[in-house]
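question for whoever is on the cluster today: can someone run the full assembly for these? two chains, 476 residues total. i dont have access anymore since they changed the login thing
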Amino acid sequence: MEKKHVGQHISHKFNEEIEDIRNKVLIMGGLVEQQTIDAVEAVVTGNIELAENVVQSDKTVNALEQEIDEDCMLIIAKRQPAAFDLRLLIGISKTITELERTGDQATRIAEMAFKLEDNNRDLSDYRELKHLSELVRHILHDALDAFARLDVENSVEILTRDKEIDQEYVSVFRQLTLSMMEDSRNIKRALNIMSVIRSLERIGDHACNVCDYVIYAVKGADVRHMPEDEIKKTVLGT
Amino acid sequence: MEKKHVGQHISHKFNEEIEDIRNKVLIMGGLVEQQTIDAVEAVVTGNIELAENVVQSDKTVNALEQEIDEDCMLIIAKRQPAAFDLRLLIGISKTITELERTGDQATRIAEMAFKLEDNNRDLSDYRELKHLSELVRHILHDALDAFARLDVENSVEILTRDKEIDQEYVSVFRQLTLSMMEDSRNIKRALNIMSVIRSLERIGDHACNVCDYVIYAVKGADVRHMPEDEIKKTVLGT
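^ ran it for u. tokens below:
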């Protein structure tokens, strides 16, 4: 899809500039994906070094956000793009805000690893995180993939998966609330894990927002506040 | 400040278009400010009708976000602005995302009013919310004011106030944790209030992000990840 659109430009240089920006977004996306995986791993295994890496990476993520935003501005000012190219550049500028905030949430999770290390580690391996973190890891990976391929169909499919994440979040939250009520010694642990699952749920939201921007760039349709069936009808005509 | 910049345009029509967009942003800002005030009021007083109003307003806020974004795209495509005008339009496009998410957080707070109504209401008047909600209400109001006037100095001052909000959040969170540990019958109430204070804290962040975009539009400086003293040096030269 992308090749066709981008290939329509007369200016070869312009194509290269847009490709450069897209590659930087993919590098940034790869970084926040790794941050997310490592942050959960750090919490589950108590690997403090890994948690420190996540916190350190955030500086690179922030710097990339600023660099890509500047690139987008320069190219808009210089090339005066319209239609698909302009939507893509604006979509990229909004996408990187989502990625930067994904990095922030991963950093919060990593910081929780330090906190859990201070308390006595329990032997549960934080099993409550297992399913939710898998769901979130996949949605983030697939959203970045949809961005890389400008894949509208997959973007629409990904949007439908947010419900599952929300349901799992509510289920784990309830479980943790019960454990608090059963024994007040569980309260601190449960509050810490609640903070982690909230960050995971937010990362799922950011991934969905990226898909919104892919659909917007390719189709010109703003589906941000549309119900699922309306999105399918508008975007896929089904 | 704004008058000088905008006045430099040759096209009177272009000025009008930009003013129209800015006015819409101010209307949207006024709406989310009212949502925030009403949502807290609904929680504190148990006024369910007010909570319903907040939830209802969210549709208008969402529609405004889409309308303003479309306006920005059209004007960029048609007028091919550069320098200040382009930064302002991109800044507006990012600002309204912050405002829309402020509206989402206010809606979450309002939804908590329904939940608290379901439980037995307590007689505490949710005093834990008092100071934090005042701080957040003021920072949001002042950020919108800074946007209206494109006031860089006030934007910088507002950014320094986020620390105070974070500190108050941590203090209330600790207080609520203690109340849970003292008596497990407090757990549900405390979890609900924790959700409210988290939303308030997030609204404070969104307000600060708006100030970042004001500084970016007027000064061309990207201060998003700068420490406070560096912002002052870069933006105010002090």
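summary bc i know u wont read the tokens: The CA atoms of residues 107 and 175 of chain B lie 25 Å apart. Residues 2-236 of chain B form a domain with the Methane Monooxygenase Hydroxylase; Chain G, domain 1 fold (CATH 1.20.58.220).
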